[in-house]
Specification:
Blueprint: E1 5-14, E2 17-27, E3 31-36, H1 43-50, E4 58-63, E5 66-67, H2 73-77, E6 80-83, H3 95-100, H4 114-126, H5 142-155, E7 160-164, H6 172-187, E8 191-195, H7 199-205, E9 208-213, E10 216-221, H8 223-226, H9 229-236, E11 240-244, E12 250-254
Parallel strand pairs: 3-8, 3-9, 6-7, 7-8
Antiparallel strand pairs: 1-2, 1-4, 4-5, 9-10, 11-12
Length: 256
């Protein structure tokens, strides 16, 4: 079976410096994968290539058998939603209007359809943002903005969801709720790929962990296989103890 995403010798250079090198990864159509690694490891660059937002990459990155750069943008947006680390808007859009922007790939006229409205309402309910739907997006806290951005991505009704540090501005309660939601979306049949710095969130909710170091894949596999003491030491330069949680997944305690 052809993987949904396939990367072959994928890489990227910025000003002559190689920030991602010879990445070979396949992602099936249903999975929750975490991309982890220290700062500068190439995580955001990898997600950028997969999302079609980083041009001039080396090698190949195909989605559903077609090179990402060859996709018609509207068609690709109907398949793949991207959640960036942050979104800055200068105009007074309400939270609801920002979520409605996620329906742009499906709009054929100036006015939203009943299907658009239903998708927006469902996305805002799922992300717990309906209570401030009429507020100016610029007035929201960092965590509230991130939830609205996620709602906008879900309103696209995607087959694949790519996220770059989706819980950066969220408190602990909302971090957990977002990862539970991502897991539920995976169970509903989506491919979910999320960049994260939190190894324990990756361990608790992901099917797979891809670990990057200096632009290369250092480990790739189930959390129990990749989140090992010696690998964490090599990639992150910290000591840790890897214990087993109640559900059998690894749980990391840092320090000797």
């Amino acid at each position: 079976m052809t993987p949904l995403y396939s990367l072959r010798d994928a890489g990227m250079r910025y000003n002559g410096t190689e920030v991602l090198s010879r990445v070979n990864l396949d992602f099936p159509d249903v999975q929750m994968a975490a991309i982890v690694g220290p700062n500068g490891a190439g995580k955001s660059t990898l997600i950028g290539i997969m999302s079609g937002l980083r041009h001039g990459y080396m090698g190949h990155c195909t989605y559903n058998g077609v090179e990402v750069g060859s996709w018609q943008r509207r068609g690709f947006a109907r398949q793949v939603s991207v959640v960036p680390q942050s979104l800055r808007l200068e105009f007074p859009f309400t939270a609801e209007q920002v979520v409605m922007m996620g329906r742009t790939p499906f709009c054929d006229g100036l006015f939203e359809s009943p299907e658009d409205r239903e998708a927006v309402d469902r996305a805002m309910e799922i992300t717990d943002t309906a209570s401030f739907r009429k507020r100016d997006f610029r007035s929201l806290s960092g965590g509230e903005r991130q939830l609205v951005i996620l709602a906008s991505a879900l309103a696209q009704s995607p087959r694949t969801l790519l996220l770059d540090e989706p819980t950066t501005f969220l408190d602990l309660k909302h971090q957990i709720s977002i990862y539970r939601l991502l897991r539920e979306l995976r169970e509903q049949g989506l491919l979910v790929v999320a960049v994260t710095h939190d190894l324990n969130l990756a361990a608790a909710y992901s099917d797979r962990v891809v670990m990057l170091k200096a632009g290369r894949v250092a480990a790739d596999g189930a959390p129990a296989d990749t989140l090992r003491r010696e690998i964490i030491r090599d990639v992150f330069g910290v000591e840790s103890q890897v214990r087993e949680a109640a559900d059998g997944r690894p749980w990391i305690v840092y320090g000797h």
